[in-house]
């Protein structure tokens, strides 16, 4: 996998030299089974901790992102039901030491819907990314127990009929994840964020684009199985909730990486940053 990661092209040449001199970090967050996070190159950084919103053209499609800080790059990618907005509370903290970039996945929110496929591997190529995986890793030992769990039905919930059922009811659909996947729904996604995320996915074609990442899981499993034959050499941090997939994620990462730091937060569900902001931030800053 290491050779494959090194061969991925970097989209913005201005940062290429600086990136290659820095240590590469893999940040793992439990984000509802979306197995994409990235180390991605943006444009010139803003000063200090001011968060700016920008867009970059990637293969003819506009990818929106938030950016702040200076220094070595730390890239944060959101999961399903969310956008880069989820990182706003932690961006100023990380920006004290790093150049922080938080892109919006292709097809979600303000980022354009790609003309071709929307899947894990293709998305990583479009964003010019070092790919890391959240929640569980398709194709890596133990993944079937999550993918085939009847209680996690949304991986196969897609197509014209689901689209018709959810259209106009996006908030009610997402409330299932935000409430039921949390250890305590009162410590889950804030109401203001829920309204923004709902609007982002209610835009034409966005829900279908979000589901496309799940549709690609069988293909992703084949890709990951092959890529994981060689372990990642860079440091990896896996953060998960004890009442979600934290333990499984830790076990999987130890199969694909040589240097793994595991943090499993007690009495915590899927939304680790929202449910345990202090503990999650401390784990990140210690690791970085």
Cα Rg? 17 Å
Which architecture would the CATH scheme give at its second level? 3-Layer(aba) Sandwich
Strand line-up across the major sheet:
3-4-6-5
How is the main sheet built?
4 strands, mixed
| Helical stretch tally | 13
Overall pLDDT level = 79
What is the ordering of alpha helices and beta strands?
HHEEEEEHEHEHHHHHHEHEHH
Give a description of the structure.
- With 288 residues, this protein is of the alpha/beta class.
- The protein has a single domain, classed as Rossmann fold (3-Layer(aba) Sandwich).
- Helix content is 36%, strand content 18%.
- The protein is built from 13 helices and 9 strands.
- Strands 3-4-6-5 form a 4-stranded mixed β-sheet.
- Strand 5, helix 3 (91-94) and strand 6 (99-103) form a beta-alpha-beta unit.
- The longest helix has 12 residues, at 191-202.
- The two termini are 22 Å apart.
- The model is unreliable at 1-48 and 125-134 (pLDDT under 50).
């Amino acid at each position: 996998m290491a050779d494959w990661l090194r061969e991925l092209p970097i989209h913005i040449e201005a940062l290429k030299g600086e990136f290659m001199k820095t240590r590469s970090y893999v940040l793992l967050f439990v984000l509802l089974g979306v197995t994409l996070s990235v180390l991605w190159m943006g444009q010139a950084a803003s000063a200090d901790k001011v968060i700016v919103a920008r867009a970059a053209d990637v293969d003819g499609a506009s990818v929106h992102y938030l950016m702040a800080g200076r220094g070595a790059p730390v890239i944060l990618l959101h999961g399903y039901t969310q956008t880069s907005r989820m990182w706003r509370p932690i961006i100023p903290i990380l920006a004290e030491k790093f150049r922080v970039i938080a892109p919006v996945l292709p097809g979600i929110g303000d980022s354009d819907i790609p003309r071709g496929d929307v899947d894990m591997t293709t998305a990583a190529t479009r964003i010019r990314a070092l790919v890391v995986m959240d929640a569980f890793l398709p194709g890596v030992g133990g993944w079937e127990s999550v993918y085939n769990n009847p209680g996690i039905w949304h991986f196969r919930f897609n197509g014209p009929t689901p689209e018709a059922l959810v259209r106009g009811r996006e908030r009610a659909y997402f409330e299932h994840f935000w409430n039921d996947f949390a250890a305590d729904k009162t410590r889950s996604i804030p109401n203001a964020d829920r309204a923004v995320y709902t609007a982002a996915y209610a835009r034409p074609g966005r829900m279908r684009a979000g589901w496309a990442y799940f549709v690609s899981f069988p293909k992703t499993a084949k890709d990951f199985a092959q890529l994981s034959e060689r372990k990642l050499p860079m440091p990896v941090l896996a953060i998960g909730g004890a009442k979600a997939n934290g333990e499984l994620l830790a076990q999987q990462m130890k199969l694909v990486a040589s240097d793994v730091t595991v943090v499993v937060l007690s009495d915590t569900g899927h939304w680790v940053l929202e449910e345990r902001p202090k503990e999650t931030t401390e784990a990140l800053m210690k690791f970085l």
